[in-house]
Amino acid sequence: MADAGPGRSVELDAMRTLALILMAASHVTRIVLGSARGWWCAPSLLLDPLTQGMFMGLVGASLAWSWSNAQRRGTQRGPWLRARARRALEIYLVGVLLFLFDKGTQIPWLFVAPGILADIALAIVVYSVTASSRRPVLWTLVLSLCGYGLMAWLEWPGVDLFVAPVNAGNAPLLPNVALSGFGLLAGLGLVRRDRWLLGGLAVPSLLGAAAMLSQHSFSQLLGDELGRTFSSVTYVGGHDGLSNTWAMLTGGTLVPDRVEYFTPSLASQPLVLGSLVAIYLAFRVLRPVLNRLSETVLLPGRYSLGAYVFHLALVGLPVVIIGRAKPLRSAVAGNISMVLILVGIFGYSAVREWQTRRRRRRRRRQAAPVVSPGHST
Question: How far apart, in Å, do the first and last CA atoms of the chain sit?
Fold first, then answer.
């Protein structure tokens, strides 16, 4: 993600890299047998609501940079929106494919709730429209607040509705999509260098987090006690997605498979928003250090979406090969898997960076003027 003016935001690259590492830890933890999980597993699961919020917020922030770059290049709104829609469709279809490998052809869940990639796709479609509108801050704020308002009503005592994929099931749309809206607002503030907008987002978020922490602990606000609501979906088959699909096609015996999911609750959101601001400010202070790491340690932050999809494929391999939901049965296997997936994330990012630089060199050579022999300039 290139900045429209002074260059990349190294702080956002750092946040993306951190989000990827935390997501990888959380996903690997879920394929390790409970009794064999290592010391890093429990913290990664506790931080899940914050990790999701960080990733979804950064999706919105990226749209602010993308539209700013498009304007600088002279790209019109229509072509830019169509390009974003194609990107969103690609991301959604990847989510469907990954769900197919994980759970099989579970209808309607295969298309209705294939996971967080569907949330990202919807966030891109919705907020690319507001980002490129004449009043991006107003319309983005209205949509995000409406999303949180709907979430509050669904969680209201006496209502208590849990509707997949809105606020229940596999990576529901709320609060994920609403968080992308706040990420877009932050991105607009950074691109425009609008201190009023940034302050208007940061101060209430930090105060809200402080107010919640004065009443409850960090673990309560992110954990099961206050920070999450739970719902379940009953699929068919208890093995990997390919086995389930094959059994469906061949008339094999399938048994009900009840899977429980959590959704970050409304009570967790002040802490999530405040924590994201605090993490950004910490990275802002560390900018001189981060600048030295931008070409190495922070490379995954430049290619976060592709690296995310790649690591999901790596996480799913043991499940598909061994044919059970928790194929890793020892702490050593979990640790090795985590290390290999981190190597995969950084390796993928390094290859992408090499390809990017190669394309740039090729374009520079093509654009260089050709001087005829015997003529001087």
Answer: 37
What is d(CA 248, CA 48) in angstroms, rounded to the nearest whole number? 33
For 376, the token pair is 């001087």
How much is the pTM?
0.90
Give the lowest-confidence range in 84-93, 214-223, 233-242, 338-347. 233-242
Helix axes 48-73, 77-103, angle to 10 degrees: 150
Return the beta strands (E) in the chain as ranges: 228-236, 256-264
Give the amino acid at 125: V
Q: In whole angstroms, what is the distance from residue 368 CA to residue 351 CA? A: 26
**Contacts for 220 with CB less than 8 Å, ≥ 6 apart:** 226, 227
Tell whether the model's pLDDT for residue 363 goes beyond 90. Answer: no
b/e burial code for range 29-67 (CB count within 10 A of at least 16 → b): bbbbbeeebbeebeebbbbbbbbbbbbbbbbbbbbbbbb
Q: Are 231 and 168 in contact (CB under 8 A)?
A: yes
Cα–Cα distance measured from residue 195 to residue 183, given in angstroms and rounded to the nearest whole number? 15
Alpha carbons within 13 A on the beta-carbon side of 341: 29
Q: Tell me the domain boundaries of the chain.
A: 10-363
Write down the pLDDT at residue 249: 67
- How far is Cα 79 from Cα 62, in angstroms, rounded to an integer? 17
Q: Read off the pLDDT of residues 63-80 as tens digits, 9 standing for 90 and up.
A: 999 999 999 999 999 999
Least confident of 65-69, 94-98, 250-254: 250-254
Helix, strand, coil share of the chain (percent; to 5): 70, 5, 25
pLDDT digits (tens, 9 = 90+) for 98-137: 888 888 888 899 999 899 999 999 999 999 999 999 999 9
